[in-house]
Design a protein that fits this description.
Two copies of one chain form a homodimer.
Chain A: E1 2-9, H1 14-19, E2 30-36, H2 42-59, E3 64-68, H3 72-78, E4 84-87, H4 88-100, H5 117-131, E5 146-151, H6 156-167, E6 171-176, H7 178-183, E7 197-201, H8 204-214, H9 223-240, E8 244-246, H10 252-270
Parallel strand pairs in A: 1-2, 1-3, 3-4, 5-6, 5-7, 7-8
Helix pairs in contact in A: 5-6, 6-10, 8-9
């Protein structure tokens, strides 16, 4: 079954789109997703209503509309259209306001502007993480909140960037390379920071395939070498008392949630 | 007023946390946010219930709980606690299932796993974007879906990475530098790609402050030089017929929404 999902917002539409992830609970419906951000005038509401009509004609069934509009008039005008509406204000924000005993702000762009206290932290974390990618520098490691280690191409970079971008975590990452394996210890620069190191590992077959895309038929990419690097890296992490997670079947979102939990539980223990 | 917001999920808790953005509509309530991901066993539900109790005692008022639990028994057990519950299943997924005529999947990790068709696209886009940051290479630019241009330190890198990570958009970025200003045209490598170039600009005072953090008292950071670079860059973009947005008071989320809309409207026109 084909169906259109429209995300209609007076701002970026990011919160509404995030809810769109829940559409994946319905694998038998094939959604085509349409974003209509910055829908903040009567004219743009008319365009949105036309989009609803167009989707209905195309699919032969009314669309799902996930909407976040602060202005009550715009909200009501949009709802004159025939669609299945999920309205973040009536479903979540207004009832929550009653519980909190506080009138919600209804201006647009409240949730994703640059004013939130966390925005500058996130930008600073992104800079830090890009500057401390792939063991690029040892300077400033004391500022890192987490240091990811693991063999080359096991997923350290995208996971670090996700932690920085989404949660404002300063995440450095360090590759474990043949010299480390020969020596049998973590890189010297990391010895002072073992409490904030987290490891990533990966299945040899998957690593072989990822590396082969980059350098086909190299020793670096060979299954034999991948197996050996992974076994040695895991051994090294075990000896150093470092926790790790397998990235083979986990998304960067899942890995990040695991790492955040680890950080939180260490904080709990040290309090 | 202090209040705890708990995000309790059987998986990463990312969708639930995204809804947490809506708490910013209530500026008079000071929320402390607690994430409890991977709450997928009766034992972990008990720990979650204890967290609810602890928050109630600490704040002197019951917490807000945003929950996403596929398993009905776990869901009901959690709800025995006293809290203000926002349940993504009862509020959103179950009613949507009735509209769609489809039973929702209730397993954990449906929304943020690596199985979604878009996950590998996102990872590929992140690699592409990191490899095409700051004009690092001209090779493969034909694959880019968008190329951001602008003066050094106007926000190109974090915006590009956000586009890649969140939407799977292959976003290259190119700095506009004094040589371009002298020549008065875009870098030669970009001439074939003007249809997918989008500009960022920034207020001179802000750029001066950002650059001064990096290189204090340099000509590069001086207000005079910032003013001149920005005026020349805007002129250059105007002559090349390139749209641009001002990053001074916009978050990367807002800039990305603007850029996505631009891409979508160009597609509409070319159809």
């Amino acid at each position: 079954m084909k169906r259109t999902a429209l995300f209609i917002s007076d701002s970026t539409g990011i919160t509404a789109s995030a809810l769109g992830k829940l559409l994946e609970h319905f694998p038998h419906t094939e959604f085509s997703q349409v974003r209509l951000p910055f829908t903040d005038t009567p004219e743009k509401i008319q365009i949105a209503k036309q989009s609803i009509l167009k989707a209905t004609v195309q699919d032969g069934i009314r669309p799902v509309v996930i909407m976040s509009l602060g202005n009550l008039d715009l909200r009501n005008t949009l709802k004159e259209a025939d669609a299945y509406f999920i309205d973040l204000f009536t479903a979540f924000i207004d009832p929550l306001g009653i519980e909190l005993g506080e009138q919600p702000l209804t201006g647009s762009g409240i949730a994703h502007g640059i004013m939130g206290s966390s925005y500058s932290d996130r930008m600073e974390a992104i800079n830090f993480t890009l500057n401390h990618d792939d063991g690029m520098t040892n300077s400033g490691l004391e500022e890192a909140q987490v240091i990811l280690v693991g063999v080359s191409r096991c997923g350290k970079t995208p996971t670090s960037i996700y932690l920085a971008m989404q949660f404002g975590i300063k995440a450095a990452n360090y590759p474990l390379i043949p010299e480390d394996f020969e020596r049998g210890t973590l890189p010297a620069a990391l010895h002072a920071h073992t409490d904030k190191i987290f490891g990533l590992t990966i299945k040899a077959e998957r690593l072989h395939s990822v590396r082969s895309e980059r350098r086909p038929d190299s020793k670096y990419a060979s299954l034999e070498n991948c197996k050996q690097e992974i076994a040695t890296a895991e051994n090294l992490m075990r000896n150093a008392g470092i926790s790790w997670a397998d990235s083979t079947s986990r998304s960067i979102e899942e890995l990040s949630a695991i790492i955040l939990q680890k950080i939180a539980s260490k904080k709990d223990k040290s309090n």
